[in-house]
Amino acid sequence: MSIDQQSPGRAAGGSSVATVVDELELRMSSEADHEWIGRLRHEIYARELGQHTPNAAGLLTDDLDGSNVYIVAVRRGEPAGFISVTPPWAGRFSIDRHLRRDEHPELCDDGLFEIRILAVDPSLRGEMIGRLLMYAALRWVSGHGGRSIVALGRVELLPMYLALGLASTSTTVRSGAVEFQLLTGDVAELTDRTLRQHGPLLRDLGRKVRWRLEVSFLPEAESCAHGGASIEALGRGLDTLGAHGDVVPADVLDAWFPPAPAAVAALTGGQEWIARTSPPARADGLIEEIALRRGLPENAVAVGAGSSDLIFRAFRTWLDASSKVLLMDPCYGEYAHVVERVIGCRADRFPLYREEGWRIDPERLARVLRKHYDLVVIVNPNNPTGVHLDTAGLREVLEGAPGGTRFWIDEAYAGYVGAGQTLEPYAAEAGNAVVCTSLSKMYALSGLRAAYLTGPPPIVADLRRWTPPWSVSLPAQIAAVSALRDPAYYTARWAQTAALRAELAAALAEADENLRVSESVANFVLLTLPRGGLTASQLVDRCRRRGVFLRDLSPMSPAFEGRTVRIAVRDAAANARVAGAVAEALRVPLGMA
After folding, report:
1. What is the per-residue pLDDT for 16?
2. Residue 79 phi/psi, 5° resolution?
3. What is the spatial distance between Cα 420 and Cα 392, in angstroms, rounded to a whole number?
4. Starting at the edge strand that comes first in sequence, how are the strands of the sheet with 433-438 ordered?
5. What long-range pairs does 209-212 form, CB within 8 A, spacing at least 24?
6. pLDDT at residue 586, rounded to an integer
7. Helix 474-484 to helix 261-268 angle, to the nearest 10 degrees?
8. Can you tell me whether residue 491 is helix, strand or coil?
9. What is the pairing mode between strands 375-379 and 324-329?
10. Distance between CA 287 and CA 298 in Å, rounded?
11. Helices (H), ranges, 63-186
12. Alpha helices, H only, 249-303
């Protein structure tokens, strides 16, 4: 799935490779492309390769065409080639005609996509178009949460496929006169290989090719993709922050309300002194306040500069490349990034299903845990699905888990659920769980970064040993202590959030009767678009032009099928702007800006 370096060369028509690429456009197919796709497919796979019997119409189609995604290459307005992808939500792959997937464990991942039917106009072969189409398919799969791919590769071209990073399963399939081998590949590894081997070439191609796909030509930097485009829109130099009122940042889950009045007063009353003064090195006062307010032993609490700080430090200490981790799917993307991309260990997924309301089934989870994992990550309430598993049920799962299994429970949004829905007391006493709690989101302190972890004293002591001094800033310590001392203020704000959330969900539902709007238990709603209409990426783009920023969930998991967005609750006026922008975006026909 990488792009091989090629010398300039000449095409059959006499144009150079550079000219071909300069004039090339890569985009998703439209209705108008269907006929030429069928004709080129017939010419190659029926007449040239003999895989299918030629027909009088000169068109080749099959029963998967309604589920396939086609990426096309067009040069000077004329068809140059195409490649198709069958996503997992299609329900079946073409390989299912030839073999049983349950007999091939590598084909049972919910994040598996099938790449098939690569076709390039014969006069343009050797001009990198085929390789660009393969790269485009890889980028599209990655942008829709794909973790692995499967393809049938012609046996005579097997060395080329292996050189590209695909792996043979040694399973042979015959279709007509053509013999194939079943090939698989890990999306992240294929992407890394491509960037390592051909980064400069890709950057050059990115400036020349007219890239019209809903994913970027090059992957994001070596970090987890998050929301926050609304903040980045104010300028990388942070010199246009005064314009923040012009945008609606519904792509991030920061609180819509201000911090507690006492926290604001404490910060504004001594800004110059606070800015130039070092904080307490170990944040002992903050730890004492957390322990007091939560009824926890002080030696069961460790603090950090936000949840991500704690995740990176703890996971690096607990895991190595040989570790085995279970992640919910979908869930907060930072966990998969740290486990797989930073530490480089194995991560299995526990799939959550839309038709089951994204609920974690405790009985099914208990059965999966028999595989003995080193670490199990559960976000509760879950982000981005917004579903909460009752704490009593979750505790039963933890108590019945095999020995040696450690649980990381992320309760960043637990305050929205209500009193008593936390496993902090359990984590402080039991030996198999820690609870991570963000003070950033629930207490309107995202810009200051503050969080804490509750766990058995030996685990906490070890984490503190890896905590650098002054890790939590003085503004964060001051604001967090003040915020924790005003629970009544936040309880009222969380109740207001629930009311605003219901109003936002109702307004969005009125925008189009075909939309599916789901309220979370936290500070956001999910909006799922109907099949065959706008994609999540297209809706996000259209709303962004109106100053409204939403979160496309497609890269987080294929379970969202490229048609679900997450919308954070803001104040009433901003929520009205969100609903209005969504309604306007849906009124514009497909194919128009």
Report:
1. 54
2. -60, 135
3. 10
4. 301-304, 451-454, 433-438, 406-410, 375-379, 324-329, 346-351
5. 209/21, 209/24, 209/25, 209/26, 209/132, 210/24, 210/25, 210/26, 211/26, 212/25, 212/26, 212/27, 212/28
6. 94
7. 150
8. helix
9. parallel
10. 7
11. 129-142, 158-163
12. 261-268, 271-276, 284-294
Residue 461 neighbours by CB distance under 10 Å: 13
Among 8-17, 305-314, 341-350, 446-455, where is mean pLDDT lowest? 8-17
Tens-place pLDDT, residues 151-169: 998 898 888 888 888 999 9
Q: How many CB atoms lie within 10 A of CB 180?
A: 20
Asked if pLDDT for residue 593 goes beyond 70, the answer is no
Give pLDDT, residue 8: 32
pLDDT in tens, 167-191: 999 899 988 888 999 999 999 999 9
Helix (H), strand (E) at residue 231? helix 229-232
Q: Bridge partners of 551? A: 566
Count of CB atoms situated within 10 Å of the CB of 376: 25
- Which of helix, strand or coil describes residue 582? helix
The residue among 379, 323, 326 whose CA lies nearest residue 350 is 326
Q: Which residue shows structure tokens 């709007």?
A: 517
One-letter amino acid of 155: V
Tens-place pLDDT, residues 526-555: 999 999 889 999 999 999 999 999 999 999
